[in-house]
Amino acid sequence: MKPEVVLYTDGSSRGNPGPGGYGSVLIYVGADGSEHIKELSDGEKETTNNRMELMGVIAGMEALNKPCTVKVHTDSKYVSDAFNQHWIDKWKRNGWQTAGKKPVLNRDLWDRLLKAMEPHDVTFIWVKGHAGNKYNERCDELATGAADRCSAE
Q1: Which of 74, 87, 104, 152 has its CA at 20 to 30 Å from residue 95's CA atom?
Q2: What does the pLDDT look like over 62-74, one tens digit per residue?
Q3: Domains and their CATH numbers in the chain
């Protein structure tokens, strides 16, 4: 049986494009009942909100060092709907083109995310942003803090 991990993520940008950041919180409860929490955050000087939303998930998935069952909580419909509404499957079938026959944006990050997800069983759960969810709020703090640091550089 694979270990179960809960991953909360968020992305932010100050301008779109502009300086941005992401935040990820991984939560694992060990066999002894002890809770382990790992926070990740970073940013870029010139990016978009959607790229940072993707990077939050990517960073969390890439931090896992063995196959896990992962429940990803995100306030990004862009990310959650890509999987839950099966957009990603349609994009791949259509040669990475949208229904409107345009290239899928952020293809480099979608590829990276799919690769990071390969060894894991992943479920995406949409959560309402800024609604008092402890870990979603923490991810927002991490993401906006990283964006602010990048804008100050």
Answers
A1: 74
A2: 999 999 999 999 9
A3: 4-152 (3.30.420.10)
